[in-house]
Design goal:
Oligomer: single chain
Largest sheet: 8 strands, antiparallel
Strand content: 35-45%
Number of domains: 1
Order of helices and strands: EEEEEEEEEEEEEEEEEHE
Helix content: 10-25%
Number of strands: 18
Strand order of the largest sheet: 4-3-2-17-14-13-12-11
């Protein structure tokens, strides 16, 4: 025998937009120096030689990444020659030190964490991990700083066309969670966040109005 069920209220089905894609989390700086922002923008910045320029910082996070600028080969140009990474009690530094010879390069990458030399892999009390590889013939020198909120790779590139290690440092940044960021790369991060927000609105609009389905009764 079929039994009829009457629902006191209409059955409502809602169609929701899928969550928007997260903003681009990666940015970089290279050469004298040219930057690629979190939003894909490309631009150059030339702070004065001898200046520590803020690449990225978050006051709320208590974090900063600064770069020491050195005079470049062309008048008025500058190169990134050292980095300081500060987060909480951690103070990490990477810099180029003269070697006094030409092979594998006139400069070599050095690193320290909380005033202690870093010569390999290391885990700090904060949980931040470090990976250090010295530059060599055919090998990029690098220091990778992997914290819970950000990953920073500082690189001394091997330049095969010149058969030497670079006399400047590059940097790659990967932000792991949303932060209020300032510094050279800060505006591009917030533009990326704004685009992600606009994408969420567009995604919701593409679904159209929610579909409502009323059912006064249902048989089973």
């Amino acid at each position: 025998m079929m039994e009829s069920h009457t629902f006191p209220h209409p059955l409502v089905l809602l169609a929701f937009a899928p969550p928007p894609s997260p903003p681009a989390k990666k940015a970089s700086g290279a050469g004298d120096p040219h930057f690629r922002g979190f939003d894909g923008s490309r631009f150059s910045v030339h702070p004065a030689a001898g200046e520590w320029a803020t690449v990225l910082a978050s006051e709320r996070q208590g974090f900063s990444l600064t770069a020491l600028m050195a005079a470049g080969p062309v008048s008025g140009s500058t190169l990134m020659h050292a980095f300081k990474f500060r987060s909480g009690r951690d103070f990490i530094k990477a810099w180029l030190e003269p070697t006094g010879r030409t092979s594998p390069g006139k400069w070599r990458l050095q690193a320290s964490a909380n005033n202690q030399a870093v010569t390999g892999n290391k885990r700090l009390l904060s949980g931040t991990t470090l990976e250090f590889v010295p530059g060599a013939d055919g090998v990029h020198g690098r220091l990778i700083i992997d914290a819970d909120f950000i990953r920073v790779a500082i690189i001394q590139r091997w330049r095969p066309q010149r058969d030497t290690l670079a006399d400047f440092l590059d940097v790659n940044v990967d932000v792991k969670r949303p932060l209020a960021l300032t510094g050279i790369l800060g505006p591009s991060y917030h533009r990326a966040l704004q685009r992600a927000g606009a994408g969420a609105v567009a995604a919701a609009a593409s679904v159209g109005r929610p579909a409502f389905l009323s059912a006064a009764s249902e048989s089973d």
